[in-house]
Amino acid sequence: MSNTKSLQEKPPYGMIAILFIGAFVSILNETLLNVALPSIMVEFSVKPTAVQWLSTGYMLINGILIPASAFFIQRFSNRSLFITAMGLFTAGTLLASLSPTFGILLTARMIQAAGSAVMMPLLMNIMLTAFPIEKRGTAMGIFGMVMFVAPALGPTLSGWIVEHYSWRMLFNIVLPFAIITLIYSIFKLKNITPQRAIKLDVFSIVLSSIGFGGLLFGFSSAGDRGWGNPLVYGTIIIGVIALVWFTLRQLKSDDPMLEFRIFKYSMFSLSSIISIVLSIALFSGMILMPIYIQTIRGFSPMDAGLIMLPGAVVMGVMSPIIGRLFDKYGPRTLAITGLTIVVVTTFFFSRLDMEISFMNIIMLFTIRSLGLSMVMMPIMTNGLNQLPMKDNPHGTAMNNTLQQVSGAIGAALLITVMNNRTESSLTELSSTKTDAVSQTQLLNEAMLNGINFSFFVSTLIAALALILAFFVRRVGTDGKIIKK
After folding, report:
1. Is 1-194's fold the same as 265-484's?
2. Which of 164, 198, 278, 333 has the maximal Cβ count within 10 Å?
């Protein structure tokens, strides 16, 4: 306890900075490859269903390993864990850059994912250890820059690079940062998190992998294959059964791999629910907007990426400011204000047409990003503040896992809503429009109706998160809820 108190009085800023860089490049890498998938298809002569595994497989490995991160963080020192994770990520990046075949490229992505999966939970746990509750908002606000800016920068950077260079340049740019971070961590990184001699429950790892992996694969495949595909509903059913078994096993264990008892803390539970609901709603912007920009309006992939760039800058600038406001005023006012902005802007996105200007879309996206910066980190930090120090690894692992799963669910749900509405609109439009209207025009109009309806569903989901935000209460420095 005295070591922790001393650490919190003088946090290791230099060490945290290098952890930030490592986490940033690993998260950036998750979305960096999406725009380059068509180029990779051409070079290796693979089908869309195969090339999609470069993204889906990366997400699956993350979903399998993140739940186990609580065990790793408690069992191994933060130094050895970070060096191992960064070593894997660097090796995967180098292999991906040099890969002569698609199979080797896919293997390289899996190695990258194995390294990056531990980065976020480890960094969050170090932040919780290194900063006292009254200063965590500011610290986690800076952390928010990594969490939200990196994924938003990915498509923009990728679009520009793919337009001018080979897709291999995506890995060549990341590689020097990964190598420098790895070398620095070997020489400068110190151990600050406590370790416990806990045993690995292999069967829990198996159940967790099948459970979370099954859910992620099933929901991620639903958009392409359809809900009626046996592979989709089969993997979801298997995932649910394994996850229920896994949960019951953890609840009966005295030393669980992932502690589900942390949900007895009301603010942590509420923050988790709000994060899940909001993550589902957020995928409307990440998935539907590129379809609208590129397919319906005919803009380039670079333009689609540029839409997110100003919003990423706003989130980067605002995250530390919001962190300071959280330390001073708590999460409730910030969350209510931010979610109101998110609900209103998402509703405006549900009224897209063929005339709205590119700048107006950017402006809406930027304002929406401002709202998001006021919600996610304050809500998450407030929930984690209620947990005892020993449960921090479980809290960070649980948060990251739930975001992965809810993101996959959100993507599947909104793509399904869009497809169903597009089909019904196309049928209706075909029976009412004259022969002078081309099939392409009909399809675009039907797809626009589908996108707008999906954004409207997203608005309702975000509104649910707004209602829940009114029940948020600030957690004090003693970990107890402040009633007023």
Report:
1. yes
2. 278
Nearest-angstrom CA–CA distance, 11 and 429: 62
Q: Which residue has the tokens 């800023």?
A: 13
Q: Which residues pair with 481 in a beta bridge?
A: 475
For tokens 């952390």, what's the residue?
Answer: 143
What are the CA-CA distances from residue 417 to residues 133, 293, 423, 457 (Å)? 41, 18, 10, 8
Report CA-CA distances (Å) from 134 to 299, 316, 329, 358, 385: 46, 22, 11, 42, 9
- Express the helix, strand and coil content of the chain in percent, nearest 5 each: 80, 0, 15
Q: DSSP 3-state assignment of 476?
A: coil
Name which of 46, 75, 58, 13 is nearest 154 in CA terms.
Answer: 58
pLDDT digits (tens, 9 = 90+) for 136-155: 777 777 777 776 677 767 77
pTM (2 decimals)?
0.82
Q: How far apart are CA 210 and CA 213, in angstroms?
A: 5
The rounded distance, in Å, linking the Cα atoms of 127 and 251 is 27
> What CA dihedral angle connects 215, 217, 222 and 227, to 10 degrees?
-60
pLDDT at 8 (0 to 100): 54
Q: From the centroid of its chain, how far is CA 362?
A: 21
Structure tokens given for 155: 């498509």
Token pair 């408690």 is found at 74
- How many CB atoms are closer than 10 A to CB 348? 17
Q: Is 146 exposed, middle or buried (0-12, 13-18, 19+ CB in 10 A)?
A: buried
CB 467 within 8 A of CB 336: no
Give me the pLDDT at residue 435, please.
Answer: 59
DSSP string, 59-127: HHHHHHHGGGHHHHHHHS-HHHHHHHHHHHHHHHHHHHHH-SSHHHHHHHHHHHHHHHTTHHHHHHHHH
Report residue 334 as tokens. Answer: 């910030």
Contact 120, 402 (CB under 8 A): no
Domain range 265-484, its CATH number among 3.30.420.60, 1.20.1250.20, 3.40.50.1820, 3.10.450.50:
1.20.1250.20
Per-residue pLDDT of 344-372, as tens digits, reads 999 999 998 888 888 899 999 899 989 98
What's the chain's average pLDDT?
83
* Per-residue CA distances from 205 to 103, 239, 409 (Å): 26, 13, 22
Is the pLDDT assigned to residue 175 strictly greater than 80? yes
Torsion of CA 247, 250, 256, 261, to 10 degrees: 80
Q: Is the pLDDT of residue 3 over 70?
A: no
- Please state, in angstroms and rounded to a whole number, the distance separating the CA atoms of residues 336 and 464: 11
Asked if the 1-194 domain carries CATH number 1.20.1250.20, the reply is yes
